[in-house]
Amino acid sequence: MWFCPYCGSLLQVENDGLSSFICSTCPYRMSIKSKQKERIKLRSKKVDDVLGGKGAWDNVDKTNATCPKIECSNGEAFFMQIQIRSADEPMSTFYKCAKCGEQWCHR
């Protein structure tokens, strides 16, 4: 898949004798002169990044919850609740083990 460098839309292939990539939302056009192949490995975000960074777990409450990591099985964890779905869905509860730092979620 190739994306327009100006507006970010998905480029379409146009076969009008001269093959080219065209953007459906802006006038961008790029001639296809050879096979196009490029791989980009995307970096996945860590759970802390999604929850607000390093300071997200500051000043949160503790509760009795068993760590899912078999080696740890600690019975105490920090938790926070965040509304990540629509308003008619229940809040998601995120946990972080107080001993090993393992993170998990309960929806």
UniProtKB/TrEMBL annotation:
What GO molecular function annotations does the UniProt record carry, in alphabetical order?
DNA-directed RNA polymerase activity; nucleic acid binding; zinc ion binding
Q: Name one Pfam family in it.
A: Zn_ribbon_TFIIS
Q: Which family does the similarity line name?
A: Belongs to the archaeal rpoM/eukaryotic RPA12/RPB9/RPC11 RNA polymerase family.
Please report the name of this protein according to its UniProt entry: DNA-directed RNA polymerase subunit
Instruction: Please state the residue ranges covered by C4-type zinc fingers.
Output: 4-26
Q: Where in the cell is it found?
A: Nucleus
Q: Which GO terms describe its biological process?
A: termination of RNA polymerase III transcription
Q: Where is the TFIIS-type domain?
A: 63-105
One GO term of the cellular component aspect?
A: RNA polymerase III complex
Q: Which Gene3D superfamilies match?
A: 2.20.25.10
The keyword Cell inner membrane belongs to this UniProt entry's keyword annotation:
no
The record's keywords, sorted A to Z, are:
DNA-directed RNA polymerase, Metal-binding, Nucleus, Transcription, Zinc, Zinc-finger
Is Zinc-finger found in the keyword set? yes
What function does this protein fulfil? DNA-dependent RNA polymerase catalyzes the transcription of DNA into RNA using the four ribonucleoside triphosphates as substrates.
The species this protein belongs to is Triparma retinervis
